[in-house]
Amino acid sequence: MPYVITEACIGVKDRACVDVCPVDCIYEGENQLFIHPDECIDCGACEPECPVTAIFPEEDVPQTLKSYIGLNAEVFKGPNPPGKPQR
Ligand code: SF4
Ligand code: SF4
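A: This is the predicted complex of the input protein with iron/sulfur cluster.
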């Protein structure tokens, strides 16, 4: 079960999570960052780093934010997938 980035990242995008991810599976989209669900090793390192509590393990995503589980997966299959985070 991968970790998932949700709504609170939108407009913040401070990339604090990127710095601690051991497998570089956090990518940057236009409005928010996303975790690649097949690359995440479920280590949990990113979760406490997020200043706006945007990151949850998939099983703990709040009910109102469940759509972000699918979004973090689908966004990588689209024509314009998130890329390496800009620093
Ligand atoms: S849980 Fe670990 S592997 Fe997954 S995105 Fe966070 S830091 Fe990266
Ligand atoms: S730490 Fe949180 S707000 Fe910052 S880029 Fe990562 S998910 Fe977005």
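The mean pLDDT is 97. The first strand starts at residue 3 and ends at 5.
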